[in-house]
Design brief:
alpha/beta; Rossmann fold; 2 domains; seven-stranded mixed beta sheet; 21% strand
Amino acid sequence: MALAAAPATTGTKVMTYAEALNEALREEMRRDPTVFVMGEDVAIWGGGGVFGVTKGLVEEFGPDRIRDTPISELVIAAAAVGAAATGTRPVAEIMYVDFMALAMEPIVNQAAKMRYMFGGKITLPMVIRAQEGAGRGNAAQHSQSLEAWFAHIPGLKVVVPSTPADAKGLLKTAIRDNNPVIFLEHKVLYFTKGEVPTDENFTIPFGVADVKREGTDVTVVGIHTQVLEALKAAEELEKEGISVEVIDPRTVSPLDVDTIVTSVKKTGRLVVSHQAVEQGGVGGEIIARVVEAAFDYLDAPPQRVCGKNVPLPYAEALEREALPYKDDIIAAIRRII
């Protein structure tokens, strides 16, 4: 008689954002032999990349499935496109999102277009992981937040997790998706901790925002670190009797407009916050979509709390001046309450 399969592990455990990503990669590589990881220093150097996301994977899966690449973002992205088109599921790492500028041709003109141009006759199951964001003094060429670049391109899905649990669940979904996914991790979040489901079947669907905190007076939509800053602001304003609802879109393409609109219809006010510079950022898109769907429900002009329209400075004091934090969100809320 055949033995019954062991039940899936349930429950949660505390882990960092980086550890959650590592666990997602490990589980998906065990589940599907066509999944492999490629990128600069993902195998040997430093025990699995700059922040240890691929730590220990080469020891388990070997150098054929955890591949160090030359220092060429163009080659990494182009090779991932070819590998995905011919039957595997590559997870390609670009060390800093800033350097994806070198890889835009295969990403924008090939990955994003190929399935459409072939009438759906092929799939392109590839993930490009990159770290973005500021707050560590990495200066102008290593600190940008560029999610709006990729959200502007039809054919790309863009993921921006803010918690360890979301990082794990969304990465597993990304790897299983048959379309190209840009998976953006924030470098300041790698060592934040949280409860993460241990169930190997745990995934989070794209296009479903998460209400991180319920409120009645104002809706704050945050991207990456700004979810955490918004939660700090909400806690402080609660002492004054101001109730803040905090929403994390989790993916900016597809964008869950319905959840945001539902919240705004309840609160009558909207603040959107991201580290990316204000000009051309996804905050403007979110506000436009809300105005189109719920203009009559707004009791005050929507506010953007975003990065200044300048290259990111290296000096700590200047970098802080260029970025939005809790107090900036509080000030925006006070303007419209």
